[in-house]
């Protein structure tokens, strides 16, 4: 990308991720000349007391844009399939948060702490991985580099905001309806049903649709995206993805088998000195990461690091991060920062 002192930036989508992108651009002092916020419909939105004029998206919206951060929904009706090529045609570099281009061999899939070098290979589009993948690879990469990884078994506990603004609304409405009913009936049906099941006072093991071998699409994203980012498709990865009634902050119970032995104290020290990671791991004081504490923070938090007593080189980690920040908006803005360096 041609070096400039300031860049014309478009943010596509004013949902939960788009709003965090606006916050990240400001809080990180990204050198913005002109900012265009684009969505399906025009309106004024307010974020932290600042008014943004949202414009209705069209191909011409990308005239003169240097960097386009996409956080519109995915698929045929979403923003990226239609408008990312239009933005690229007009000279912008697209950083897309959705799944539409992630597995395209011409599109780098980037987590800067892991594979920032892949950014250079872009042909106009760079993809941001799925939120649950981002936090897992940030935590596993230093271990992988040190002692290798043979196997990963992960169960995710994913917050409602991971499914967008309407899912947050659904959870809120369900919690209100249950409490207004005096907690006598835990089964409620609110008008907002953007998730496949009730989430209030519930958890359900389905994120995305069911796909190959009865795994869900979200479970396959964890496998395929991790292989692509780490440039190693031999790591055996298996996932169960679960939606939990948390507002923001995904947690992951991750079991790994390393290629060479490593002690938990060594892993703690290794992660504590790695970029973008905070270790919170003190069983004596009940210290471990939790979603309510990581909401609004940009790092990946790791705790409960412990060796499997039965399996050689087996180890557990508990990994928590803000899915809207490191899992989406912040990672995208970090990619943009690498791009302009
Ligand atoms: N939430 C997360 O934790 C997370 C993490 C990683 C990646 N992602 C991905 O990030 C993207 C955005 O997710 P989100 O959670 O922010 O969704 P969201 O809260 O549902 O917001 C979606 C936004 O996209 C806009 N939009 C939808 N279709 C559009 C189109 N055809 N043209 C222009 N704008 C369009 C909507 O416009 P209107 O407001 O005008 O309706 C809305 O502002 C998705 O691809 C998602 O998979 C999300």
Largest sheet: 7 strands, mixed
Helix content: 25-40%
E-strand count: 13
H-E order: EHEEEEHEHEHEHHEEHEHEEH
CATH class of the largest domain: Alpha Beta
Ends: how far apart?
A: 9 Å
The CATH architecture category of the largest domain equals 2-Layer Sandwich
Give me the number of helical elements: 9
Radius of gyration: 20 Å
Order of adjacent strands in the largest pleated sheet: 3-4-2-1-5-6-7
Uncertain runs? none
Structural domains: how many: 2
| Overall shape | globular
Bound molecules: NADP nicotinamide-adenine-dinucleotide phosphate
Strand percentage lies at 15-25%
Going by helix content, strand content and strand pairing, the class is alpha/beta
Determine the CATH superfamily of the largest domain: Dihydrodipicolinate Reductase, domain 2
Provide the residue-averaged pLDDT.
97
Could you please say which CATH topology of the largest domain applies here? Dihydrodipicolinate Reductase, domain 2
Short description:
By secondary structure, the chain is an alpha/beta fold. Helix content is 30%, strand content 24%.
